[in-house]
Amino acid sequence: MAKILSGREVSARIKDELKGEVSELKKQGIFAGLAVIIVGDDPASRVYVNNKKKACEELGIYSEEYALSGETSEEELIGLIERLNKDDSISGILVQLPLPKHISEKRILESINPQKDVDAFHPINVGKIMTGDYDFVPCTPAGIMELIKESGVSVSGKDCVVIGRSNIVGKPMSMLLLHQNGTVTVCHSRTNNLKEKAKNADILVVAIGKPKFVTGDMIKEGAVVIDVGINRLEDKKLVGDVDFEGAEKVAGAITPVPGGVGPMTIAMLMKNTVKAAIINRTEKKI
Ligand code: NDP
């Protein structure tokens, strides 16, 4: 049976360490502060934003929420971001995605000060991930690296297969594995012989958004399997992109859904916010 890589446990440990760090920083006059902007009333986005605020409270991080109407213009949103860029009490700025269709995601992400870009979506931070000289790592791939560490398997020299090539998960994930000396194959919807490629993986990361797509017969005996997918079935049950029951019989270690990658993403956002506080030497809100 595979070792279960519990994101709940690992993220609780990381948050505990961060709580100590936040309080130490306050003694040095550095106060972490996160501004979260949400535009419109997407219910899933609302849940994510609430969870982020709750995590800030738990850790003693100051947070501000800007809940803007779905009619907000691109210029108004940029105006708010520019104000927050200059605010000495704000270390990190997060714009919850997706944005309404009339707003250019690209323009908004580019308007965030890269030193306050705790999601690491600004092109400067994306480029830094490519070169390996980075301050912020996108939260989901950063959390996955922690879970791989938890498996006890070293990435160096391993065959790593990432299924999915999105800008927020697949691509940065492949770079992080490469920086740790993994031999990385990135697969996507046009990949030939996907099963064969997946089965070659010592470390398999699946981020495609298709319920139970990866089955036990696609997994190498003893592999580390990271399931990023979050899919809600018709009966409301949450499942990943990996068929957990079949996969855990073959894998050496595997993440559950829920309770795997999901909780790590928020812990890593908190980590980036603390890092941003140090970089920007953020002051207490007055
Ligand atoms: P995207 O939809 O942006 O990307 C999906 C990727 O999967 C694409 O690269 C696509 O290929 C590839 N793909 C789709 N179908 C197949 C297929 N049949 N075979 C091989 N590859 C395929 O998704 P995200 O990366 O944003 O998210 C992926 C999943 O992870 C979702 O379920 C999402 O909810 C979840 N997620 C979870 C997070 C967490 O905190 N746990 C955070 C972020 C995402 P192509 O490029 O060719 O179209």
Question: What is the secondary structure topology, with strand pairs?
Answer:
Layout: E1 3-4, H1 7-27, E2 33-39, H2 43-59, E3 62-68, H3 74-86, E4 92-95, H4 105-111, H5 123-131, H6 139-151, E5 159-163, H7 170-179, E6 183-187, H8 194-199, E7 203-206, E8 224-227, E9 231-232, E10 238-239, H9 244-248, E11 253-254, H10 261-280
Parallel strand pairs: 1-11, 2-3, 2-4, 5-6, 5-7, 7-8, 8-11
Antiparallel strand pairs: 9-10
Helix pairs in contact: 1-10, 2-10, 6-7, 6-10
This protein binds NADPH dihydro-nicotinamide-adenine-dinucleotide phosphate.
Residues 140, 163-166, 168-170, 187-191, 194, 207-210, 228-231, 261-262, 265 line the site of NADPH dihydro-nicotinamide-adenine-dinucleotide phosphate (NDP).
Summarize the structure.
The protein has 286 residues and is α/β, with parallel strands linked by helices.
Features:
binds NADPH dihydro-nicotinamide-adenine-dinucleotide phosphate; alpha/beta; 3-stranded parallel β-sheet; 286 residues; 10 helices; single chain; 6-stranded parallel β-sheet; globular
Write a structural description.
The protein is of the alpha/beta class and 286 residues long. 42% of the residues lie in helices and 15% in strands. The chain has ten helices and eleven strands. It has helices spanning 7-27, 43-59, 74-86, 105-111, 123-131, 139-151, 170-179, 194-199, 244-248, 261-280, and strands at 3-4, 33-39, 62-68, 92-95, 159-163, 183-187, 203-206, 224-227, 231-232, 238-239, 253-254. The strands form three sheets. The protein has a six-stranded parallel β-sheet with strand order 1-11-8-7-5-6. A hairpin with a 5-residue loop joins strand 9 and strand 10. NADPH dihydro-nicotinamide-adenine-dinucleotide phosphate (NDP) is lined by residues 140, 163-166, 168-170, 187-191, 194, 207-210, 228-231, 261-262, 265.
